[in-house]
Structure formats: structure tokens, C-alpha cells
Amino acid sequence: MQSIERAEFVLTVGEQAGADLGEPSRLLQEAIVATKADEHRRALQLAGDAQTKAERILGDRASEKIGALRGALPHLGDDAGTLKALLNRADASMGTRDFEDTFRALDEGEKFVEIQTRSIDCITRSRSAFRNSAAAASTAFATSGRLRS
After folding, report:
1. pTM for the whole thing?
2. How far is CA 50 from its chain centroid?
3. To which H or E segment does residue 121 belong?
């Protein structure tokens, strides 16, 4: 029963992370049916298989997210340290198969990058607006000088 609960926990974390866990879910359902039929050895095997496959899928999904976030590092400049710490935490959690903390760190990293991207966009727009207003003021000043002459 404990192996079924562990597999259920991994599947729950995976579903929350948006992973496709169709096959591991099917194996877990078979394990539950086997338990009810007093086929405990088969139930243990199926629950173990479900957990193993789910962990492999979660590991792959986490690795993809880590790779994508690492791609954002060069664009963050001085703020990259925060994202590096979150990625290191995700890597360490993956190593201990703590997928709950892995995806929590990755979610925090995605939110951080999103906030930084919005901040950079706002700064870029502000600079562009300033340049445009400065250019407009310069043009207006030059035009008014010509009109006086």
C-alpha cells in the first residue's frame, strides 16, 4: 500500500506540473486493482513501474524547463544570480527526486524571468519615448527658431 501512495504522490506532482502521465496512471490503476484482488506482489511491481515511469517523465520535463531558463541567463545581466540560485535548487532537488521542490523552484524561476522581461520592456519603452520626445522637442525648437528669423 505504501508503494501505491508514493506513486500517487509522484503522479499528483506531475499532474500539477502539467506532465502527460497517461501510462504511469494506467499502471497505478492496475496496481490498485491487483491490491484489491490480493495480488500483492503484482501490485508492488506495477506501483514501482508507475513511479519509475512517472519520475522519468518528470525528470525529462524538469530538464527541458531548466534548459529554457538557462537560455534566459545571458539576457538578465546583473539579475542573473537570482535565477542561477533557483536553477541550482531545482537541480539539487531533481538529484534527490524531490520533484515537488524541483517544480516549485522552476515556477519561481519562470515568474522571475517574466517579471524581469516586463521590467526590461518597460525600461526600453521609456527610453524610446524619451528619445522620441527629445527628438520632437528638438524639432520644435529648430522650427520655432526658423519661424522667428
Report:
1. 0.75
2. 23
3. helix 99-148
Say how far apart CA 142 and CA 5 lie, in whole Å.
77
Q: What are the sequence ranges of the domains in the chain?
A: 2-148
3-class secondary structure, 125: helix
Exposure class string for 58-94: b at 16+ Cβ within 10 A, else e: beebbeebbeebeebeeebeebeeebeebbebbeebb
Provide the grid cell at 139.
524639432
End-to-end CA distance of the chain: 94
The reported pLDDT for the residue numbered 26 is: 97
3-state secondary structure (DSSP) of residue 145? helix
Q: What pLDDT, in 10s, does the model give residues 58-76?
A: 999 999 999 999 999 998 8
